[in-house]
Amino acid sequence: MIELFQITGSASFAARMALEEAGADYEAVNIHPRRREEPASFAEVNPLKRVPALREGDVAVYETGAVLLYLTDRFPALGPAAGAPGRAGLYRWILWLADTLHPAWWPLMKSASAHPEPEAEAAIRARGRDQMSAHGSYLERELARGPWCLGETFSVADLYLYMLVGWENYIEGGYELGGERVREHYARVGARPAVVRTRQLDDLDERQLRYHPELRAGLPIS
Questions:
Q1: What 3-state class would DSSP assign to 219?
Q2: Is the pTM of this model over 0.90?
Q3: Which one, of 91, 29, 25, lies nearest residue 216 by Cα?
Q4: Spatial separation of the C-alpha atoms in residues 107 and 110, rounded to whole Å
Q5: What's the Cα-to-Cα distance from 27 to each of 1, 4, 6, 16, 56, rounded to whole Å?
Q6: What is the DSSP track for 22-66?
Q7: Lower CB count within 10 Å: N or C terminus of the chain?
């Protein structure tokens, strides 16, 4: 059985969607966001104590992109197999999402207290929005090729992109990434039964906002 170390509603959401899509036999191990030393097995799987992390027998995998690619190797429904047409495109998408789009949200999400000088804070946020606008334009061009990131083939890249687009709802003052094609892709992925089920498991609405912000996996975070 696969163990998924997760914090509901965090980046582990992408891995849980993939496991649900695959119909995998897995156990969710819920990590308290403020007590990551519990359980001790979490640090054994990921010494950085970040989610998602997976353990299957003697195999341990962490970092979102690596987890999704590992699951694709395990479950053919999640994307092209190694050596198959489309696999190179999957590598490109997952690495771009992990290395470029995922971290690009941080300048827009950081608390104002992290930048005590208002002018410096405003400049960082403005640069962040400019960068995200460029990423949105790129996505609009790429998604013109078909209903999914890989054209006609659904993959874990669609799940990862869906999660990251949903993070726009965390931005104070509002933000919308990309245009019509990004909106259509978000709706298309969000309507998949496994994705609907994962939102329910993670206590998230269609915008990926928590129904109960004070809880993680049904437990208080205080």
A1: strand
A2: yes
A3: 29
A4: 6
A5: 7, 6, 10, 10, 10
A6: HT--EEEEEPBTTBTT-SHHHHHH-TT--S-EEEETTEEEESHHH
A7: C
